[in-house]
Specification:
five-stranded antiparallel sheet; about 475 residues; Alpha-Beta Plaits; Aminopeptidase; 20 strands; about 35% helix; alpha/beta; 15 helices
């Protein structure tokens, strides 16, 4: 029988491996560097309301200069003082066209009163890093900056330039950095293809890696304003033509409506792959929706899961509502915001027209809300971009490095159900792929939520992954 002291030592070693020390193939200096960059980014407030993206861009630029990048290879540019983007270039031989790495520095608003910890303080606790942006996406930003520094210090000379763009206003605001760079400084960011770690990554179930998800396409983001008006009056004389009632009735109709089932090449391949890893009824249902015609009962069962539902349908949901001006007066105006994530091939205006038909109420005006918050009577005809070809120079390195770090884990192309800055780069002729080395459990997705956190092991593995992956990419 082993001694209690021996068993305690084993337990301590196992705890250290799980929490940090055995978690990744990186040395202590790299671990410390990446930790310091991550902490610095989290503690720079980059919200749209009171934050400053320029401060984060300048901080990362200084780290790159300290690592040996020439100031002429670093640009800090943008439309205003608070929303300047960082663009840095690691020069290669030029034998192949560059690869562009994009990551947004801005984060969603966070209230201290909602959180257990201060959202703008970097806290390490119980094997996790806590702070606004740990998952979305300052953890990935820190990984990219760390990787650029490591390659520069090695005097690494890839066959293609590696361009890093850290940008503003992906989460909102009027100064989206990727769009601004593509429109105003295309020469600085022009590339053969784009890697965006704001999507994809290792999906865990109960701590076990089940797939390396790679976002090959994404849904189209759009907001719509619902508005009803009324002359109002004294609340002691209620009338049925109440602006708030019209909005409420429209939202109830939306709740009961389901957009049509639809698959594309990427989602069809995704469900085909997942049907091999799932078991029982779920596996059978995934095969059933791929049949011709698709099994309607299988669609209904899979649609009960929010993720699967979002992969098969355009989704629209009410996110904000307001109305009235006094407790003792009939409302003169009522509004609601409906947020939609639209399947590729369908436009913002097409979806607006669908909402109008659903509500079937001339008292409810449906307008489009632009990224700058401007309300427009009609929507853009813009559609989500079609899935790009799965380039061998991306897929081959991804499969090799995934096999090395997570043996037996399949690489599964998927469609992002959210939205990313790929909406600007792909239509500009730069195929964009959401690829991350960060691992998250499907039951612990806290992006945009309270107590956002990232496992320490996940971050360390992400640092190891992107270094290996980018080296392989640069040589393909």
């Amino acid at each position: 029988m082993k001694s209690i002291g021996f068993m305690a030592s084993v337990a301590l070693i196992l705890f250290m491996c799980v929490s940090r020390l055995c978690s990744a193939q990186i040395d202590d200096a790299t671990r410390q560097l990446s930790h310091d960059i991550f902490k610095q980014l989290i503690e720079i407030n980059t919200t749209d309301s009171v934050g400053n993206v320029t401060n984060a861009s300048e901080a990362m630029a200084q780290r790159l200069v300290d690592a040996g990048f020439r100031p002429t290879d670093i640009q800090i540019i943008g439309p205003n003082d608070r929303k300047k983007n960082l663009v840095a270039r690691l020069h290669g031989t030029g034998r192949k066209k560059p690869v562009l790495l994009i990551g947004h520095l801005d984060v969603v608003e966070a209230k201290r009163s909602d959180w257990t910890t201060d959202p703008f303080q970097f806290v390490e606790q119980d094997g996790y890093f806590y702070g606004r942006g740990t998952q979305d996406m300052k953890g990935a930003d820190a990984v990219l900056v760390t990787t650029m520094i490591r390659l520069k210090k090695e005097n690494y000379k890839p066959e293609r330039d590696i361009i890093l763009a850290l940008t503003a206003d992906e989460e909102g605001g009027k100064s989206n950095g990727v769009q601004w760079l593509v429109n105003n400084h295309r020469d600085l960011v022009d590339a053969e293809f784009v890697l965006n770690p704001d999507g994809g990554g290792i999906q865990l179930e109960d701590g076990k890696a089940v797939m390396m998800e790679m976002d090959a396409t994404e849904k189209l983001y759009s907001d719509y304003q619902l508005k009803a008006t009324n002359p109002g009056g004294h609340s002691s004389l209620p009338v049925p033509d109440n602006a708030i009632y019209h909005i409420a009735d429209a939202l109830l109709k939306l709740e009961r409506f389901h957009f049509p089932f639809e698959l594309n090449d990427v989602t069809r391949a995704y469900f085909g792959q997942m049907s091999k890893t799932e078991t029982g009824q779920k596996a059978a249902d995934m095969k059933g929706i791929l049949s011709a015609p698709p099994d309607e009962q299988a669609i209904a069962r899979l649609s009960e899961d929010p993720l699967n539902n979002s992969l098969m349908h355009t989704t629209c949901v009410a996110t904000r509502i307001d109305g009235g001006h006094a407790n003792n007066a009939l409302p003169q105006t009522a509004r609601a915001n409906v947020n939609c994530r639209i399947l590729p091939g369908h436009s913002i205006e097409e979806t607006r027209q669908t909402l109008i038909r659903i509500f079937d109420d001339p008292k409810v005006a449906v307008s489009s809300v632009g990224s700058d918050g401007e309300v427009q009577a009609e929507s853009s005809p813009r559609k989500s971009f079609p899935p790009p070809p799965l380039l061998p120079e991306v897929m081959n390195p991804l499969q090799r490095v995934t096999r090395e770090m997570w043996p037996g884990t399949p690489v599964v192309p998927s469609m992002a159900t959210g939205a990313s800055d790929g909406v600007y780069t792909s239509p500009a002729g730069m195929p964009t792929f959401g690829i991350s080395g960060l691992a998250l459990d499907v039951n612990d997705i806290r992006a945009h939520g309270k107590d956002e956190r990232l496992p320490v092991k996940s971050f360390d593995d992400g640092v190891a992954f992107y270094y290996k992956f980018l080296k392989a990419i640069a040589l393909e």
